[in-house]
Amino acid sequence: MTTTITICDTCKRDDWDSASGASDGEALAVLVEAAAVGHDAVTVRRHSCLMGCSNACNVALQAPGKMAYTLGRFTPDAAAAQGIVDYAALHAEQPNGVVPFRQWPVAIKGHFVTRHPPLPE
Questions:
Q1: φ and ψ of 95, to 5 deg
Q2: pLDDT tens figures, 76-105
Q3: CB of 31 within 8 A of CB of 77?
Q4: Peptide bond into 57 cis (omega under 30)
Q5: Under 8 Å CB-to-CB from 89, ≥6 apart: which residues?
Q6: What is the tens place of the pLDDT at every residue in 31-87?
Q7: 2-32: b or e for each residue (b if 16 or more CB lie within 10 Å)?
Q8: Which domains does the chain have, with CATH numbers?
Q9: Taking the complete model, does pTM exceed 0.85, yes or no?
Q10: What is the DSSP letter of 64?
């Protein structure tokens, strides 16, 4: 089953540099999209505003019938992007979406904001 990473492309961290022209969310989205290339069980999409502004940069991980997660407080860098994609791939492998803590990539530890149970079928 495929896990979808939804990236807030309007996120701006407190130290955002407006001279860059791109939001921190856009910068993270570019990196996550690149890191996801070749991962058949992971798809990436962008969405404007996940309403987690105090936790920017934010992403949501979702798959039908599985636990869903919101993660935030990322620096838009390659390590964060790779950790997000690696966790999404592990999420895709789990029947319920719950990845054992010992398997979590270091880059995502401390970044969980919320989790949501799957919707009833």
A1: -60, -30
A2: 999 999 999 999 999 999 999 999 999 999
A3: yes
A4: yes
A5: 3, 39, 41, 42
A6: 999 999 999 999 999 999 999 888 889 999 999 999 999 999 999 999 999 999 999
A7: ebbbbbbbbbbbeebeeeeebbbbbbbbbbb
A8: 3-116 (3.40.30)
A9: yes
A10: T
